[in-house]
Amino acid sequence: MQEPIVLLPGMMCDARLYAHQVTELSKDRAVMVAPITQGDSISAIAAAIAPSLPEKFALAGLSMGGIVAMELLRRIPERITRVALMDTNPLAETPASAAAYEPMIIGARSGRLDVVMADFVKPEYLAPGVQRGEVLNLVQDMGRSHGADVFERQARALQRRPDQQGVLRRCKCPALVMCGEHDGLTPVKRHSFMAELIPYAKLEVIEKAGHLPVLERPEATTQALRRWMTQPLVLK
Fold first, then answer.
1. Each residue of 151-160: pLDDT tens digit?
2. Which of 236, 217, 136, 134 is nearest to 178 (CA)?
């Protein structure tokens, strides 16, 4: 059996984000979805989940999950056999983008989490098509399940997130950088930049998908992850 794979969900998401991947990948390997809900900094979130992770594991994270994955790669690189960074961003927030979280935090605190979530995950972040509404409804439901306290902690963590370009440059394990071709939040050019930073990275762009290819094009996403899992561990 291949090494276990740990999946990190995006902000305000849970294991439902990876339903297809868990079902398919667990046929021949152990699969774990680790929550990123504890702590109000990226470092604290990574520290909270690291003790519960396998001794050696493949690591995949989407969006905020990818940001936490990069922090784990910084903290415990010797335990990570390969890494997949999906629809994510290695850069720190700018002062303006960090400040933009404040009205969302206030809205969540005041009982308007549904409104905040609708503004946080906009339709144009996803690929056009009939599945867009279904995906947005699931995102709303996952966010509702987590509640306003988790939203505030995760928003605070993103506000203060570190720049991880140096971590990517030092990455020595097989790496997949993946995104949807219509990602309106973290576009393809950002992922091309990330792939250039990582010595052994492979860039995959999922057609007819946006910021959440795991839901928009689940089969294609799972196939990309399977290809990543077959990359040799020892690279010359």
1. 999 999 999 9
2. 217
Q: Which of 117, 142, 127 has its CA nearest to residue 213?
A: 127
Residues 6+ apart with CB under 8 A from 219: 20
Q: What DSSP state is assigned to residue 57?
A: E
**Cβ density class 21-54: b for 16+ within 10 Å, e for less:** bbebbeeeeebbbbbbbebebbbebbebbeeebe
Hey, what domains does the chain have and what are their CATH numbers? 5-229 (3.40.50.1820)
SS3 83: strand
The residues facing 5 across adjacent strands are 31, 58
Whether pLDDT at 217 is above 50: yes
On average, the pLDDT of the chain sits at: 95
Backbone angles phi, psi at 113, to 5 degrees: -60, -40
Q: Which two tokens stand for residue 190?
A: 């950002």
Residues, the chain, total?
A: 236
pTM of this prediction? 0.96
pLDDT in tens, 63-77: 999 999 999 999 999
| Beta bridge pairs of residue 205 | 179
Full DSSP string of 98-145: HHTHHHHHHHHHTT-HHHHHHHHS-GGGSPSSTHHHHHHHHHHHHHHH
